[in-house]
TrEMBL record:
GO MF: phosphoribosylglycinamide formyltransferase activity
Pathway assignment: Purine metabolism; IMP biosynthesis via de novo pathway; N(2)-formyl-N(1)-(5-phospho-D-ribosyl)glycinamide from N(1)-(5-phospho-D-ribosyl)glycinamide (10-formyl THF route): step 1/1
Record-linked NCBIfam families: PurN
Residue intervals of the Formyl transferase N-terminal domain: 19-138
GO CC aspect terms: cytosol
Catalytic reaction(s) noted: N(1)-(5-phospho-beta-D-ribosyl)glycinamide + (6R)-10-formyltetrahydrofolate = N(2)-formyl-N(1)-(5-phospho-beta-D-ribosyl)glycinamide + (6S)-5,6,7,8-tetrahydrofolate + H(+)
GO biological process, one term: 'de novo' IMP biosynthetic process
Name this polypeptide is given: Phosphoribosylglycinamide formyltransferase
Family: Belongs to the GART family.
PROSITE patterns: GART
Native source species: Salmonella enterica subsp. enterica serovar Poona
Key words, A-Z: Purine biosynthesis, Transferase
InterPro entries on file: Formyl_transf_N, Formyl_transf_N_sf, GART, GART_AS
Documented EC number(s): 2.1.2.2
Length: 169
């Protein structure tokens, strides 16, 4: 963010600059729509998305979050797990809605938290799971198996439970 507006590197090497948040979102949508995507996958995109952006890609906007949602939305999830003495932590893939990290969960992967763990230890363990489950979920979407309907995640025609599928591997 600069005094003259907003600039951000998004979706590869694009530099999107705009005088306002709304103008930024319109320009980002224009750039993404040029590719006519079936799905928009967020990874490391650390901006809260506007309702306009979310509505434009509703039902085809995926995010991965480093916690077992709904626990620990937002930032510093590994630190929170350590501070709270959690024995397990993990990652969630979810559809994006207007609620921060509150969209329907599709798949979760759990990892243990050990007494002598640091944030870096947990980060490494969680990232290993993220690299396994995110491509799986993207594949389900690409195969037409995964949908968002009635503000819920559906896989193979079945409504997923609020925590989505869980993977302990």
């Amino acid at each position: 963010r600069t005094n003259s507006g907003t600039c951000d590197l998004s979706a590869g090497d694009w530099l999107v600059c705009a005088a306002s948040r709304a103008a930024f979102d319109r320009e980002l949508i224009r750039k993404i729509d040029a590719y006519a995507p079936d799905v928009v996958v967020l990874a490391g995109f650390m901006r809260i998305l506007s309702p306009m952006f979310v509505a434009h890609y509703y039902g085809r906007l995926l995010n991965i979050h480093p916690s077992l949602l709904p626990k620990y939305p937002g930032l510093h999830t590994h630190r929170q797990a350590l501070e709270n003495g959690d024995e397990e932590h993990g990652t969630s893939v979810h559809f994006v809605t207007d609620e921060l990290d509150g969209g329907p969960v599709i798949l979760q992967a759990k990892v243990p938290v050990f007494a002598d763990d640091s944030e870096d230890d947990i980060t490494a363990r969680v990232q290993t799971q993220e690299h396994a489950i995110y491509p799986l979920v993207i594949g389900w979407f690409a195969q037409g198996r995964l949908k968002m309907r009635d503000n819920a995640a559906w896989l193979d025609g079945r409504r997923l439970p609020p925590q989505g599928y869980a993977s302990d591997e």
